[in-house]
Q: What sequence folds into this?
């Protein structure tokens, strides 16, 4: 989870940097976009990994899902990350994908806070 927060922050930094070079029309280092893509792929991978661990662990332990709002928060974060990645690949083709990408990522921040708080909540609940 720490790693996915780190990936998110690195994406925000490289993303805002790309925005800056685009607005100021200064040349954009070619590695900047690749770096943003690389961090993006890491975030997608990490979030899917956490989803898999959460589902497999909970099923193994309780045999069912959906014990708390952490379940909804987890699904929301995964949905937002996938939407963000999907909209990102469309930025070059469709102009409306850019505000969608940025909007999704602002919502994603709230989602990450939510999944962390509720995740911490279930940890408290199940620890002896
Ligand atoms: C889910 C993984 C992500 C992928 C695959 C991804 C990919 C991309 C791509 C391809 C672009 C367009 C670059 C261009 O050609 O101009 C872009 C722009 C951008 N991304 Fe991401 N991104 C991801 C996540 C994020 C996150 C989490 C943030 C912020 C927290 C973010 C912030 C931005 C910003 C600010 C821009 C610049 C928009 C502009 O130039 O107006 N991205 N991203
Ligand atoms: C993107 C991040 C995360 C995703 C997508 C995710 C997803 C999930 C899902 C889908 C479940 C099954 C919940 C249920 O069926 O009720 C789960 C369980 C769990 N998660 Fe996460 N999670 C994430 C982050 C975290 C974090 C940060 C923590 C701890 C601080 C955490 C701790 C737990 C615990 C303890 C369970 C077992 C809950 C139970 O037994 O009901 N998760 N997670």
A:
């Amino acid at each position: 989870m720490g790693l996915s927060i780190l990936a998110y922050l690195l994406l925000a930094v490289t993303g805002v940097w790309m925005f800056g070079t685009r607005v100021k029309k200064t040349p954009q280092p070619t590695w900047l976009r690749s770096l943003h893509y690389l961090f993006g792929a890491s975030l997608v991978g990490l979030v899917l990994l956490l989803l898999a661990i959460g589902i497999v662990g909970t099923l193994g332990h309780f045999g069912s899902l959906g014990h708390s709002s952490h379940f909804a928060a987890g699904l929301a974060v995964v949905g937002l990350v996938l939407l963000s990645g999907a909209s990102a690949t469309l930025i070059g083709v469709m102009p409306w994908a850019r505000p969608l990408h940025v909007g999704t990522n602002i919502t994603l921040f709230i989602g990450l806070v939510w999944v962390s708080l509720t995740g911490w909540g279930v940890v408290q609940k199940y620890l002896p």
